[in-house]
Amino acid sequence: MTTFDAISDRLAEQVIEVPSWAYGNSGTRFKVFGSAGTPRTVQEKIADAAKVHEFTGLAPKVALHIPWDQVEDFAALQSFAVEHGVRLGTVNSNTFQDDDFKLGSLANPDPAVRRKAIEHNLMCIDIMNEIGSTDLKIWLADGTNYPGQDDIAARQERLAEGLAEIYAALGDDHRLVLEYKFFEPAFYHTDVPDWGTSYAHCVALGDKATVCLDTGHHAPGTNIEFIVAQLLRLGKLGAFDFNSRFYADDDLIVGAADPFQLFRILYEVVRGGGYGADSGVAFMLDQCHNIEKKIPGQIRSVLNVQEMTARALLVDADELAAAQRSGDVLAANDVLMDAFYTDVRADLADWRSSRGLPAEPMKAFLASGYQEQIEADRVGGNQAGWN
Amino acid sequence: MTTFDAISDRLAEQVIEVPSWAYGNSGTRFKVFGSAGTPRTVQEKIADAAKVHEFTGLAPKVALHIPWDQVEDFAALQSFAVEHGVRLGTVNSNTFQDDDFKLGSLANPDPAVRRKAIEHNLMCIDIMNEIGSTDLKIWLADGTNYPGQDDIAARQERLAEGLAEIYAALGDDHRLVLEYKFFEPAFYHTDVPDWGTSYAHCVALGDKATVCLDTGHHAPGTNIEFIVAQLLRLGKLGAFDFNSRFYADDDLIVGAADPFQLFRILYEVVRGGGYGADSGVAFMLDQCHNIEKKIPGQIRSVLNVQEMTARALLVDADELAAAQRSGDVLAANDVLMDAFYTDVRADLADWRSSRGLPAEPMKAFLASGYQEQIEADRVGGNQAGWN
Amino acid sequence: MTTFDAISDRLAEQVIEVPSWAYGNSGTRFKVFGSAGTPRTVQEKIADAAKVHEFTGLAPKVALHIPWDQVEDFAALQSFAVEHGVRLGTVNSNTFQDDDFKLGSLANPDPAVRRKAIEHNLMCIDIMNEIGSTDLKIWLADGTNYPGQDDIAARQERLAEGLAEIYAALGDDHRLVLEYKFFEPAFYHTDVPDWGTSYAHCVALGDKATVCLDTGHHAPGTNIEFIVAQLLRLGKLGAFDFNSRFYADDDLIVGAADPFQLFRILYEVVRGGGYGADSGVAFMLDQCHNIEKKIPGQIRSVLNVQEMTARALLVDADELAAAQRSGDVLAANDVLMDAFYTDVRADLADWRSSRGLPAEPMKAFLASGYQEQIEADRVGGNQAGWN
Amino acid sequence: MTTFDAISDRLAEQVIEVPSWAYGNSGTRFKVFGSAGTPRTVQEKIADAAKVHEFTGLAPKVALHIPWDQVEDFAALQSFAVEHGVRLGTVNSNTFQDDDFKLGSLANPDPAVRRKAIEHNLMCIDIMNEIGSTDLKIWLADGTNYPGQDDIAARQERLAEGLAEIYAALGDDHRLVLEYKFFEPAFYHTDVPDWGTSYAHCVALGDKATVCLDTGHHAPGTNIEFIVAQLLRLGKLGAFDFNSRFYADDDLIVGAADPFQLFRILYEVVRGGGYGADSGVAFMLDQCHNIEKKIPGQIRSVLNVQEMTARALLVDADELAAAQRSGDVLAANDVLMDAFYTDVRADLADWRSSRGLPAEPMKAFLASGYQEQIEADRVGGNQAGWN
């Protein structure tokens, strides 16, 4: 197996973007529980996100969600972030919460609603220009609940038209990242339900359009690492939304439900050239901390990605290739499992110490008193959530 | 095949209980859309529910959800219902929306929270006494999101204790109906996730405890009609919550996603003695009309159940048994499919006319002007929803 | 709703190709049950298939599976088929039963095995030339059972190379139809697991490559009609393999498990221009009659497709479009359901009679004595199966 | 976390029963690949199984499958096993491969077939008496492929009757272990599809009847460890059939698909008192080595169970309980994950050495020359498989 020393520098390349909305409240249709210390403003969200980076060194970027994070002066917001040690990153457009979007946004049968959805995305590109962001991420809640409710084929054409207009407005260094999702909130058909649909639209749009793979957005049993390998091969994997799930789109902490799956995904990322600063593949989290504390939840998440990335990097590529070539099924599997079962935590603690980071970020954060402070300070106001 | 005439009287036995909450707004974690004419009070909900019965003759009972439908004077509410031509039915307890219930209710690790959950159910029994209701329906959102979060086995014992205390408070003619659900809102384990768990608890409780089968609460691919047959055989099928789904617990209109499945379920109900006034099996709806109009959505739902019940009753039991005994797979399947493919709609229209009901309830309701009237009248106030 | 008269001529366009292997024995890994009258030779399979066409008028073509249907003189086999009233159709290559293919065929790590797999497909093209067939259908059992067993990305490149060489050998009027499958016989990853992968390869190959959609080859809950609509829109839907399933790739009689799904699929086929002689979309069956009699099983299957096609054609497109445009969810759904719930069987019986076909093909076949005759005649020899 | 020393003795209690059929060939309905060195006789299977025990010390028992392992003199077979260092264990009845069982065995509509199936099980009890085995394991392939094919409810009664007759023939120290399976080979309904059904029958039968949980026999997404906890609580968990799966009943090496799931299962086993000699819970493997070598496949399997048992034993119960009581979701999860991520392999190697076992069983076996020898010796004859 590869030694930890040999992968040390590669680990330093890791950048994980955290979502501003992870620090607000979230829940299910049954209940959104409040929690002490929850941010009331986008500035408080950024301050919390900055703590994740401070303690881990892994999360220098914060993704925005518009309109949840709408402010008058985005340049000032960027300055605020930089003062806290992070930068604003991907801009996520939201076309699913206005009453107009009840029957869809870019695929809505009503041209006026489609126009509104396009304009919202164009406005997001304006924000990208203000903050120097490169990525516009589009996730569409579009779909139908009942067979016959709308014309599936016509909706694809409307979608293609809307995306084309948005794409045309991108700057030279911009990207459109199109996310797909198996189902929810639509329960019969979804307009971008699978990687194939996102891929076909991105190919039609052009080089600046790539696919976003949310690890929770697949049918039961789907082999996600295969999709990773396929999209990397096709040159269209733009970003990950990491999280984990046992059932549907549960949005649990990445690696919590199936750590081995996360390992296999990261192995294919590394194998396919999707890891590192020049890969063009953005690592993002998209999770819901419904019942656990949010900042520690995010710290746990980026650490899970880091620990599993370390294991993926440890796979001995030559040994594996040799076993594969020889057709020795058990030996090839063993090479992979050997890396997975390696406990990298002590090595990572040393690695962090050597870089001026807390050896144990979770403990260091819990001991820092930050959580107690925000719980004491943030009294009153409206806790941030998905609205 | 059996003739429609031969099943005419049996159709007259059908009673479907509608949920008060179907008339309020519902949605997903992403958005609850408002809609014109939505009730602001429980009285308005009952008035709407009464319309479903008026136009179909199928829905004489309205289920309550406490605290959503909490009022000071339940006897007065019952009178209000009766004046509108319906009666209050099953009382549904709700132990998932108080902040205390973040980590569960009857299975919560904190005894004070468990006490609170028990008291809530005892209060629901008081309401049952006030309105003369026989059924307490318990659906628990209890579960955990992360492995290790709580002790699965200990939670079962706490659950058993809590249920026992509630059960002990039931009156002589009361029933406790325990619903199970595969997942959501808990995403790792659910404390009553399958019929086996609900059944085991009901057996331990006694004769007054029975299982509620919600048709949307199963793992993908589960053969629901088998569970129906099994619970009927074991004498523990107490009630249905009807709805339909393509993915998770989508709560679409019953019969909308898989009409053939609804047919198979109703066939097993009829076959196993679960149909009719004396069967002890309550038919209820539990649906979400997130984007469609609610009263027509309910009318469509009860009609779907009625139409499919008619088809199930049309199955020629003798012919089927003969084909089954002979081992003729295709012939036996054909007997069943013959009934399913029979278009019963014209016969049902005649049947309704002969009983003084509108031949086409949906059209009659749409022509009645009721929807326009409530949309005009119900301006201002807080539209009812899941809170 | 559209009248039956209005769709009468369109029904006459329907051609369903039946698979030679449906007449042989099939089963599960646990057991392949024999059955009286099963063909011992490809000629007997064709004779049986011809009966399906004789009684239904729907199945003038028989697909071959090589090497199961290997003969010395394919021109003579075509003549034999024509004498029986049918023609040989699609040629299915088989690269999963030789010991060499244990670790895959076109994606095998061993170049010698890949060569063998390519040569087998080239030989199938020779057979196509001999019989005048236009379609080479490729389904690959390729995949791995264990993570790490082989390099997922490298396998895609090998696959692409192999397909390219086969594609290059196609004649001007030939097509390569690439089937995808979610899983089985590989249990970790499959090399062509989804429509996106098949589509990406077909695009890379060129215009003569199209996707084959087997209705049983998807993850649980997948919206298949969406894929139909998408592939039609992208111009890459080449063929269907019809069957049905409750769980995995059960290969039950088409329409048996979820008739409403079959209806929705056929509606999208009609809607998207995939129906009829000039559509370029081949309708094929791919089923296993493990326990039911095979010829009646095939007759039931083509009738199911015909009955559901009739219902799909009955959908009133204008009425549906109007409801969709108005955003009336329930009304739009009702238009679709109205066609689905229409009992077309009596009209179809008349339609058949008027075209010189038995009004009730199943009854006519059972009364014909053919089954009894082959059960009496076909004694001894080796019953055909999957080997 | 608990120390390895503290669990050392408990690891010595572990007994895993291996199935005789794992050493024969297996495959899918598409192909059963042969492999060099495969046993031709039950004696050769036992000899191979004995090697697994010799190198691991974990597998002193071999389960039989009747009639696959039928011999004239079972006492002699037991002596043969003992000479090789193992003993014969559970007797598995097989009522799914005779032509008579095409439509089921204990639930068959034909009383003569039911009689035959009962007699087969009684004969298995005779074998148990001959070899001193305590467990009769019954897995039934019974079910139907098409709705209507047979009467689901009537089949339950037939099943109950048949089981009762078999149960009555058990000796004082015998157990009947009833396995359930979600689907396959039946594709519409299965007569014992879930733990609830198996449990209800076992309760009706009596104390000597318990449930067998095959880890691959559940619907997608099912929380298996919950079922473990529930059955232990109810006193009805009799045995495990270990294996793993990504999709359906893939029968891959235990722990290969989802090692974390195996950990969670074993944690609940330990937690619920299901671990160790006196627990009454038998650990068995039930796997298919379709493409990998069989003896190393079995060695890998028992080692996977051992390694994961060690991790499960390492969980600090007090620390976990404290975190659970405090409602600290992340802390409780961390306690569990800490044990899971601990690399126990070096400690286990030392543990083995100290007990006279090879530190690295897999390497030791590969170096032993046994595989080469059987490949050279076992030429000719019919390789054992599922028939």
From TrEMBL, chains A, B, C, D:
Residues 64-245 form the Xylose isomerase-like TIM barrel domain. It comes from the Bacteria. It holds the Pfam family AP_endonuc_2. Gene3D superfamilies: Divalent-metal-dependent TIM barrel enzymes. Keywords: Isomerase, Manganese, Metal-binding. The keyword Manganese applies. One of its GO terms (molecular function) is L-rhamnose isomerase activity. Its EC number is 5.3.1.14. The keyword Cell cycle does not apply. NCBIfam families: RhaI_grampos (TIGR02635). This is L-rhamnose isomerase. It comes from Angustibacter luteus.
